[in-house]
Structure formats: C-alpha cells, structure tokens
Amino acid sequence: MPIHGFGEIAEQLRRSTVVVLPGERGNGSGVIWSADGVIITNAHVARASQMRVQLWDGREFDAALVSRDTQRDLAELRIKASDLPAVIAADSSQVRPGELAIAIGNPLGFVGALTTGVVQAVGPLRRFGSQPWVQADVRLAPGNSGGPLADAHGRIIGINTMVAGRLALAVPSNAVTHFLAASPIDAWLGVTVAPVRVPSSISRTKAFGLVLLEVEPESPAANASLLPGDILLGTDEKSFASLDDLASSLQGSGPRVVRLAFLRGDYDRFRRVTVQIGAQRVPRSAAAA
Q1: Which of 44, 151, 173, 242 is catalytic?
Q2: Do residue 165 and residue 193 come from a single domain?
Q3: What CATH number is given to the structural domain containing 190?
C-alpha cells in the first residue's frame, strides 16, 4: 500500500543525514539531532577528536567530539551551524514488529542512499548483553553506520550500527536520548569489544570473555598497556557474563581505578591490570601484570 507523502518524508530524512569524515580514509553517517549543530553518530565512526561533517547541500564543517560511549556505540559531535534540518525522535519503546523501517546513509560513497524494510523485533540479542536493539531487515553497507532508521512518518526510531546475520541493528532512539542526558565520557575505557568464549585449555567451563577489537590511542585502556586481541575476563569482584558487566564495572564519578583480569598471547596464564578512568586523558602509569 503506498504511503502518502513518502517522497517528502525520504527527502527530509536525507536533508537531516550527514556524512562524517573521521580522517583520510573511510566515512560514515550521522544524524542532525538538533538545529543548533548537535550530530549523533556511532562511536566506531567518530574515531578522532576532530572530524569533518558534510551536509546534504555540500557544506562542510569542522566537528568536535563532545561525548562518546563505546558500549552503546554512540557519539555526540557538534558543529558551528544553526537552523539545521533536525530530526524528530520517536518513542522507540512503542515500535512494534511489522512496522515499516527506512534507513538513510552514505554506503560505499553513495550519499543519501535509501533502503526500506520491516522491523522484525525490538529487544536484546543473545551475546550482545541486555540492552535492546531495533532489528530490521533493511540492507546496510559500510558507510551506513551512524545514519538514521526511521518509521513511516519519518521519525527516528534508531541509529543504524551494524549487521547481524540478515538483520540490521540500530541503537534505539530512547537510548540516544539517555546518552545525551548522561555523561558517558566519565566511564570511558576506550575499547571496542566483542563477546567470545575463553579457550577450553584455560577454562574447563568455557568462561565468557570480551575480546578487544580496537584500543584507542591515549585512552585509559591504552595507558594501561591493553592491546587488541586481549580478552577481558572480569574484575577482582566479578567475572564478566555479558557486555553489561563491563559497563557496570566502569560506572562511577571522578578519577578512580578498576582492576581487570585478562588473557593475552597464547592465553597460558591470567593477567591483571589496573586501569585509571574518570578522565579523558590520563598519564601512562599502569602496566599489564
């Protein structure tokens, strides 16, 4: 059944979607969240403290990284501009399977590409922690990350983040609202992780772990000598059983330390490291043990 005004809805979404240029190589997408220059994208797209943002009309602006949450994969950028075509966020708790989903992004160099599909589910996924995802059968490609997932009225229901099997996963719009109201930088570790099972030679129970896919330069994790490929197992108080456990271990306010257990190399022994968090930059003072 045709949707009244679909062309106008799609055009407005394109005008509210930006190209995020984090460096010399690659690009992602972003969403104009407010008319005064707040841009929302994925944390894995916003890989530098200073980036460039290109608007639908071709204008480019320097973008400053305001806040970043690698656990929820969200980042807030700000550009010096006004009267921008901001999106309207829907209440993602009201999204239901079967609803139309519209994705806009900049995949493989195509600016403002549109794809449609249907919402399949809204909720957590196994091995991805307890946090919910909007799951839709829209086709995403590199460059779509950080772009909007909208409903049939053009309201934002999520931020496109990754593909799992045949489904696109988007961070729900309600999580974006919470992210903007919080201060995730205070619990910033500076890593991108994925759930894994610890090799059976190390643990007969096949313990849960979080492998470090990326460690940001000058982050608390980098300052503590953690490296890509290391597997986080838990803290002195608790073993990790999900992504949420890592996020919980980092909660707090002000400068503080977290003691992490991890595996490295041939995984022949457990190691521990003290990580200083609660600030964007800390001196390099901790070493893996």
Answers
A1: 44
A2: no
A3: 2.30.42.10
pLDDT, residue 253, reads 65
Whether 145 is a known active-site residue: answer yes
Q: Which of 95, 96, 135, 142 is nearest to 117 (CA)?
A: 135
109 in the same domain as 46 = no
- Spot the catalytic one: 16, 67, 145, 219: 145
Are 132 and 158 members of one domain?
A: yes
Q: Pick the last residue of a domain from 181, 202, 235.
A: 181
Annotation marks residue 285 as catalytic: no
- What one-character DSSP code corresponds to residue 202? T
pLDDT over 80 at 267, yes or no:
no
Report whether pLDDT(15) > 70.
yes
Provide the pLDDT for residue 127.
72
Confirm whether 29 is a catalytic residue: no
Alpha-carbon distances of 91 from 145, 156, 210, rounded to whole Å: 21, 9, 31
Amino acid 283: pLDDT: 33
Domain of residue 220, residue span: 184-277
Q: According to the model, what pLDDT value does residue 189 have?
A: 85
238 neighbors 245 (Cβ within 8 angstroms): yes
Catalytic member of 29, 67, 73, 219: 73
Choosing from 132, 153, 181, the residue where a domain stops is: 181
Q: What is the dihedral sign for C-alpha 202, 204, 209, 213?
A: positive
